[in-house]
Amino acid sequence: MLKLKSTFVPAAKRAASALDKHGFQVTTYARPQDLLITRGNNSKLYDDVHNKEYIDFTAGIAVTSLGHSNPGVAKILCDQSQKLIHSSNLYYNPECLELSEKIVSKTKEFGGQFDCTKVFLCNSGTEANEAALKFAKKHGIQLNPQKQGIVAFQNAFHGRTMGALSVTSNPKYRTPFGDLIPGVSFLNIHDELTTLADFISSKKDEIAGLIVEPIQGEGGVFPIDADKLVGLKKICAENDVVVIYDEIQCGMGRTGKLWAHAYLPKEAHPDIFTSAKALGNGYPIAATMVNDKINDALQVGDHGTTYGGNPLGCAISNYVLDVIGDEKFLQEVNRKGELLTSRLKQLQKKFPEHITDVRGKGLIIGAEFAEAPKELIQKARENGLLIITAGKSTVRFVPPLTITDDEIEQGLSIFEKAVEDVYA
Ligand SMILES: Cc1ncc(COP(=O)(O)O)c(C=O)c1O
């Protein structure tokens, strides 16, 4: 492990006393007590208090896609904050107008939702999904007041606010909070298309929308078959059910295309899709994209947000979209994804009883383990690599998209050593 420069020592001393204050945070996270992130640079994170350097394969849970402390993002943050941070949605601001137009035009240019026309800007993934659910319900209710229900899928994750939680199946997240919004049905995405179709068509007068992640992220990095999504969209279109793709984790270049659904033929494109996480590279901003059919169901006053579309967040997102919405950048994501995947497959050959699958697209990759890899995550951290789990027994690799080949190699060497230490 690298020794840190002495210039960071005074800051480290100040930060050290911060750890003593951890008791003032509500009990919703179990964090390691021996780790305090004080700064970052591309795919590296530093703990100046404990004098440690880490390779970060988590990117703040698929957020800092252009790397930590990205100089372009930092410059825009600094410049825009001196110009205008917030002005509310009572008035237009140029950055928000530019961003909405850019999302629509880049979406079309890079093979995403072909009929995308409008954007609602907000602040987090869960909020983007709230907007999507409300828009779908409004569309359904206008056709028939009973058409309010939502179809969602087992093993999916859509957020923690009451609406987004209502369409998230995991009982651990739901049951402590009692009654959630009614009318939600959870189907199994792996069921035959005919089973899913029968359910949707038999309840078509009660179902307003269907929400699905093209790649289930938190659930364990499970890409959904293109055929399944094509079939689902067809059934939904036949039954006036609005299709929502949650691209909060798998979108914004993570799969090697701007949007994960850009891998799909046009007939599987959604009516609504949502983005957050990497959209602001760490600045909280999110977006809900819709076609004219959805927008026609909306009126002034139907939905709102104080901070959404603020000039600071939009200026940052304009920059992030310019960098990620670029063919060469996306090709690099694919190349690095292949590098990481092939190295993980080699490791799987060495430990076939423990690593049972390696799957994903671009730089959202899951390595499935035969048992929950808790010890492995800890061992990797001790040796200078940050990784996260997904689902029950998947190790999730979602590094910054700007990670260098060297950083991939360094991180994988630590990972391989940790696998050997735990399983050899
Ligand atoms: C697919 C998906 N949807 C929604 C969310 C919620 O986003 P946020 O935490 O920004 O509210 C997440 C977060 O992990 C996610 O992965």
UniProtKB/TrEMBL annotation:
Its cofactor is pyridoxal 5'-phosphate. GO terms for molecular function: identical protein binding; N2-acetyl-L-ornithine:2-oxoglutarate 5-aminotransferase activity; pyridoxal phosphate binding. The keyword Cytoplasm does not apply. This is Acetylornithine aminotransferase, mitochondrial. One of its GO terms (biological process) is L-arginine biosynthetic process. GO terms for cellular component: mitochondrial matrix. Keywords: Amino-acid biosynthesis, Aminotransferase, Pyridoxal phosphate, Transferase. CDD domains: OAT_like. The keyword Ion transport does not apply.
